Amino acid sequence: MTATPLRKALFSTVACAAVLTLALTGCTNTGESKAATSGGADQVVKSSDGPTCALADYKGDKFELADAVVGFSQSEKEDNPFRIAETQSIKDEAAKLGVKKLIVTNAQSTLSKQISDIQDMISQGAQALIVAPLNSDGLEPALSVAREKNIPVITIDRLLNAEGCSDYVTFLGSDFVEQGKRAADQLIAGTGGEGSIAILLGSSGNGVTTDRLKGFVDQMAAEAPDMEIVAQQTADFSRDKGQSVTEQLLQANPEITVIYAHNDEMGLGAQAAIIAAGKTPGKDIQIYSIDGTRNAVEQVAAGAYNGVVESNPRFGPLAFATLKSFLSGEAVSQSIVIEDGEYDPSNAAEKVDLAY
Amino acid sequence: MAYLQQYGVYIAIVLLLMYNAAFTSNFISVDNFRTQFIQMVPVLIVALGMALVIGTQGIDLSGGAVMALAAAVIPLYIGYGLIPAAAMAIFAGCLIGVANGAMIAFIGVQPIVATLALMVAGRGIALVVANEQLKSVTNPTILSLGRNSIVGVPYSVLVAVILVAVVALLVNRTTFGKQLVAVGGSRRAAELAGLPVKRILMTTYILAAALAAVAGIVATARLGASVPSTLGNLIELSAITAVVIGGTPLTGGKVKVVGTVAGALLLQLIAATLIKNNVPDAYSQITQAVIILIAVYIQRGKLAVR
Amino acid sequence: MITPTGTPRDATVLEARGVTKRFAGITALDNVDFTLHPGESLALMGENGAGKSTLIKVLTGVYQPDAGELHLGGTTTTFARPLDAQRSGISTIYQEVNLIPLLSVAQNIFLGREPRDRWGLIDFKQLNENARTLLDTYDIHVNVRRPLHRLALGMQQMVALARAVSIDARVVIMDEPTSSLEAREVETLFRVIGLLRAQGIAIVYVSHRMDEIYRVCDSVTVLRDGKSVHSGLLADLPRVELVSIMLGRSVEKTKRESLTAFGSARTSSQAPTLIATDLTRKHQISGISLEIRPGEVVGLGGLLGSGRSETLKALAGVMKVDNGHVRVGGRLVKNGSVSAAIRAGIVMLPEDRKAEGIIPNLSIRDNIVLAALPRLSVGGFTSRARQDAIVDVFMKRLRIKATSSSQLVSELSGGNQQKVMIARWLAMNPRVLLLDEPTRGIDVGAKAEVQALINELADEGLAIVMVSSEVEEVVEGSARVIVLRDGSVETELIGDEVTEHHLLSALVGEPITVTKELP
Ligand SMILES: Nc1ncnc2c1ncn2[C@@H]1O[C@H](COP(=O)(O)OP(=O)(O)OP(=O)(O)O)[C@@H](O)[C@H]1O
Ligand SMILES: [Mg+2]
What residues of chain A lie within 8 A of the CB of B74, using their CB? Predict the structure, then answer.
């Protein structure tokens, strides 16, 4: 009784897999934009003031990266350009420096998985860790294991709610508040300080959203108090939500002339909505966003988008350089803020290759 | 009360329309209604398939993943034109349906487990197919599917209307439709009545996947881009809600097509009302939850009275 | 309403006054009065759909009456839910077994009243022991740790009974408790009832079987079309009169139409329609061979677990056999395929109507046409006209009582649901009809109709196999009885041998004296 259905089921599953595989192999090279990861601009340190941390303070032994096992814990699924570029940059740099072994894990946006990922890597013999935390809190169980074994932890892109040089060595990342502020500057310059603004917020409860909003709003209040923010709604960092929400907002508030999106994807969604509403993006309604993805920068170059503030994901070189000097006994800053680039109509065409 | 129970979802729609007419600027306009209809299309199409699946006492969590897969497949074949690309996208979606159906009908995996597996795996496959890239879609035919209208009716809405009619016909007028609800009412009794239960389940999951694939195509056309990473994320939940608000019980054995349309419309109006009135996200989530709970409660009452 | 003829007893345990209950389009109970005295054993009688189950559900808090009131031990009361009634000492075995299939026998019996250990967790050892002791008292032998759904329907009913009596009850209500029981189990049930009565517990007993009524009850309340039309002592009421009250016909007319409607069953000498050879399935049946000829009704006798239902299932393709085969009209029927069996003309009325028969969410029409749907459709589209042509015929022929063919089948009384099931299969024009308990839960009137129908179908040339736990029905309805024991054919009774006496002896392997109480 069970034999035939089982066989049928197996057959269909195998057939399914086979066809999908065909689809893949036939098409992997048709990608319209090549993943330009390490090819882009390296991160530049903008500020590294404040307290420092040296191997002697943190405790632990010196060793050479070339003989070392290093673990990298990625936080979110690699389904967006930022994460893809970030992981790729770490891998590329490790290969370039000839690190003996790099273990890469991905927590798939699950905190408990990130904790066990880190613990696993330690038990696999990782001697140093680079961690992109999923959340500012909650990693203590994993960090305490690293702490006990004096394994240096370098955190990137999201600041932990913990003590530098104690729970971790140092943090490398962008200043998201600053990014919001610069987006405001771009917007004021591009519009001449006139118009009504709609903001597409990132996911609620996300620190990046809060910071990019705060920097923007404060700067607007200071520099262009006459510009009105008529609506701010979340579009969850996603393109299709960006489109739907923009459509609704444009209809309810026809006076909107500028859109500020917390990431490029939402900005591109807004662009589609503007086109659908029969208006010209970049002219009738301007768009500004943060990230620096290739798709958005190309639009800036084409004049259908007005400005992009970069959030540089290429942490590899800086992370390993910091790790190297720390291991050699030098003191490193506990907080290293990187310099982010900027794309506007004047430079987008020439800098488009730097986008990721 | 009985009246309320029967028509809860329609009353809610009317109340929301009245609220918006009074308080939301530019709400009563052809353009606005067109936007609402266009935006509800993907949820509605996924919900149609979901209604069929729920009718068999099943559930399908893989709709969003199928949308993503369809979106990922389109750019690969769009060079040959919209029809071949759409056909391939639907075909790829159907494969997910085959996997769902095979596990559920032949191996006896619980629908929620089987389709949860494909919800995760399906999006993974979509990302692999897309080489983890977002791709702009520039083919004018597919863009016009997303953006143009025929006598004032957007093509995407037209597609949805046709699909609603087809599914309604399927459910109410065909042998398959009757057999589907019979399986949902009592699988054992249907088996003993000689119905090809396994084939019916298999077909239902394939249909649901095909519909989700169409939703993926329409959404991609509208967006002008293939975004497999986020397209249709958690759309299953909206679809299930639309189906349940529309009067299809989760216990199966009944499929309400018109109710499902009303359910999807209600969800769309709720979202639009909250966005247009610039309600902060936290409040809007709570409001949505409350409205949905009330609607579902009313429906549940209806069942209890039966 | 006829006044009670017996000596009035003033104390009542449970009373209903002027109870009315309406469903959409139907008044199931219309101003019904009902009185139950302590220690009384009351029969609640009536045709299918008369409102018996509905009255019981009102008495036990499943339904809220639209009008009227309940009195418990003399004081007015309402039961918001079944638990309230249970707490007031009213224990019920519903018509359809409603225990929890995945829980064990012991857990089902003590559901909600499990013994706890010192941590407040269920003390399973104690639980199982309590269950075993209880079941032993009533001579019910079953492994108390088995999940309920693994038991045969009759055994499940016994578990429901054990549960009902284990609750400290003043009143035990039983809605057709014997319909799925074996002769032997029926005896057990009656013994239990005797014990309950000795303790002064009042009994409400619903059954369509006259013999039982006269054996266990001393008074009767008759419902007809939702009204209470008679209350009185049974001793004063001859059987024919009771039936005529139930049916609302004159006594003369009732007398003319005998109570079982089976004509003289005939054997047939034509070539067999169905030949089964050596059907075997591990632990179920072994080496069963039989031949059924056109126009012949063959009874399958046997006790519970003898393999009667399993044999039918094997014939109908519901159960796959390890060995042996079935031929219809000389053509081999694919093993273990219901649709192949149906195509060959073999159809089966399943034993468990609720779980295996009706599709509760569908209308009467959809239930009747379910199997025949493809041939009533045009190019995959259903045709209402073609469906109605069939449905109307069978609703009339079987006298299915409903507001319309669009009514939900779940709203029908048990007997009418059974008729819908029969209609489903007759609509298929079968060659071989397998009937597992065809008259279970069917009232005297309808039972006679169904039995007459079986005769008629046999006359039309159908080959019929019937399983019934009513010995009388088997004997009167069959020309031939194949007796099974432990999964294989024990003996076959033909012609003159087909008597209750012979059958009972063959069933248990020893002679039994049959006492038949007649009015
Ligand atoms: N939930 C319901 N909804 C609608 N009608 C119902 C419902 N329950 C019962 N009825 C109707 O009420 C009437 C009485 O039904 P009930 O089940 O009480 O009959 P009964 O006397 O127990 O019959 P049977 O001997 O066949 O079990 C029937 O006509 C039935 O169709
Ligand atoms: Mg009943």
Answer: none
